[in-house]
Design brief:
Strand content: 15-25%
CATH superfamily: Cysteine proteinases
Keywords: Disulfide bond, Glycoprotein, Hydrolase, Protease, Signal, Thiol protease, Zymogen
Shape: globular
Family: Belongs to the peptidase C1 family.
Number of domains: 1
Protein name: Pept_C1 domain-containing protein
Order of helices and strands: HHHHEHHEHHHHHEHEEEEEE
Number of strands: 9
Largest sheet: 7 strands, mixed
Function: Expression of the protease correlates with blood-feeding and suggests a role for the protease in blood digestion.
GO molecular function, one term: cysteine-type peptidase activity
Radius of gyration: 21 Å
CATH topology: Cathepsin B, Chain A
């Protein structure tokens, strides 16, 4: 009889753990012990505590990715705060589908499926801005302009108006740069037929890709600005640039953000990165353990629901062998890790 009671008590405890929704789980306070976890102990803890996403231990990847983040202070920059403050809370009267994928909606725009690799540079602010701009340029032209916008152009030429280059920058600065000065065409490292391809090669091993060498233990220096295109490209830099017509922030409301994506294309955002994010492998990410490390800028391309958990579909810039083929899914609707609080977009 005692054994039966113990078994029943175990079942009740286990049931209480498993019935928590992702939103409830995310709202739970994380113990100081869990916050201090790192390495394999953190990964084991994450996989034991929840079933929303799967973590995978890869020490080399973790250390390299830490060098690609931005500093939290950048969110307090006046220009960043101003664009967020101007975002209006709109009333959405149209129906929004339960799931949406920009890759399927605009198949004529190859940039939406293009996963970049920022390498050992904290250029996510420029890379994800270039991704989003490329998508919107194609979408707003009904698929006639498939130019890949150059992340290197913004990274190297925007200057202090965009922050600190490879040491982290301002996503909103990149958008205003595109509006005021224009951005030229770009592409992968060493890609021909474009004005300014990405300046840094992918570092480390990536399945099915050329190996350029291990990742250095330091962040690359911000490249110098060049007002000309690479040799052999048959167009002048000034003539190659495209301009954003309008730049704006979106109010931190999932319906407002979804409506903008559905009508105009992917958006750029930034979120707070914790130690457990580096080890993400698949599923819907919900912060579970580890300390905060900084900020990361990315591109949201859609949304969906899995087992009752609402998520954003997000394109990362850590190559195609990270996460779900370069993408990840992130808890939606509760501004988890501030992902809905710093959304930017523009018109072309």
């Amino acid at each position: 009889m005692l054994a039966l009671l113990i078994f029943c008590a175990f079942c009740v405890v286990r049931s209480e753990r498993t019935v928590l929704t992702a939103e409830q789980f995310a709202a739970k306070p994380i113990s100081k012990e869990a916050q201090k976890l790192t390495g394999k102990a953190l990964v084991d803890y994450v996989n034991e505590q929840q079933s929303f996403f799967k973590a995978e231990y890869s020490p080399d990847v973790i250390e390299q990715r830490k060098r690609t983040l931005m500093k939290m202070e950048l969110l307090e920059h006046p220009m960043q705060k101003e664009i967020v403050a101007k975002a209006k809370k709109l009333v959405i009267n149209e129906d929004i589908p339960e799931s949406f994928d920009a890759r399927e909606k605009w198949k004529e725009c190859p940039s939406i499926r293009y996963i970049r690799d920022q390498s050992n540079c904290g250029s996510c602010w420029a890379v994800s801005a270039a991704e989003t701009m490329s998508d919107r340029l194609c979408i707003h032209s009904n698929g006639t302009r498939k130019t890949m916008i150059s992340d290197t152009d913004m990274l190297s030429c925007c200057g202090l108006a965009c922050g600190f280059g490879c040491d982290g920058g301002l996503a909103i600065g990149a958008w205003f740069y595109a509006q005021d000065f224009g951005v030229c065409s770009g592409g992968r490292y060493e890609e021909e037929g474009v004005c300014k391809p990405y300046v840094f090669h992918p570092c480390g091993f990536h399945k099915g890709q050329k190996y350029y060498g291990q990742c250095p233990k330091h962040v690359y220096k911000t490249p110098k600005c060049k007002s000309y295109c690479q040799y052999g490209y048959g167009k002048r830099y000034q003539a190659d640039r495209v301009f954003a017509k309008k730049v704006y922030g979106l109010y931190k409301d999932e319906d407002i953000i979804r409506m903008d994506i559905m009508k105009k294309g992917p958006v750029q955002t930034a979120f707070e990165v914790f130690e457990d994010f580096y080890s993400y492998k698949k599923g819907v990410y919900v912060h579970t353990a580890g300390e905060q490390n900084g900020l990361h800028a990315v591109k949201i391309i859609g949304w969906g629901v899995e087992n009752g958990t609402k998520y954003w579909t997000v394109a990362n810039s850590w190559n195609t062998d990270w996460g779900e083929d370069g993408y990840f899914r992130f808890l939606r609707g509760v501004n988890h890790c501030s992902i809905e609080g710093y959304v930017l977009a523009g018109d072309f």
